[in-house]
Amino acid sequence: MTTPDITTSIEPEQRSERRRIGGLIIGSALLSAIGVGALAYTATNAAFSGTTDSTGSFTAASVTLTDDDFAGANFVAADMLPGDVATDCIEITYTGVAPARLAGLKVYGTSSGDLADNLDLTITHRGSGTTCASAPASNAVYNGTLAGLGIDYAAGSNGSVPLASGETVAYDFTVTLQPGTLDEAQSDNAAATFVWEVQTV
Q1: CATH topology for the 65-200 domain
Q2: DSSP secondary structure letters along 100-152
Q3: Is the pTM of this model over 0.85?
């Protein structure tokens, strides 16, 4: 009995087709690998960077004012009779660093006591760079009663705006007990605190 030949014969055309398909698969795999490598290189290359920096320093300006009363009572008048006049001079010094940007300097104050309504107050200044030893001048700041002087910056009276750091301006105060003050005001008294304030623009 003859055994059948089950060996499958592969034609040359079939072997050639298989080699062509295998080559396509390998080529695709190589192209994919190259593409992934290119993407990885691009991503790494895009991470390059360079920086530089600068430093800064900032300080707030000072707009300080000082006066020559050494925190004590600078202006004292006692035993005033109707028509009596009391005067005093106070020096105000600007020690700030930004005079070119000041909105203005104002004088204001608070008063107490029953006599405040009977006291007429005049405030003048002698101009930039003056002291109480300078010749008097009449640059009007305020003219009214002691009780009527503005009590804050908004209601204050315009003073001499500082022109430079270290500048001193002399302010003259004249207080008059009104001639028509009634007998009932005897022994009345009044007190006041005067404030100079400067603000920036």
Answers
A1: Jelly Rolls (2.60.120)
A2: GGEEEEEEEEEEESGGGGGEEEEEEE--TT--TTSPP--EEEEEEESTTS-SS
A3: no
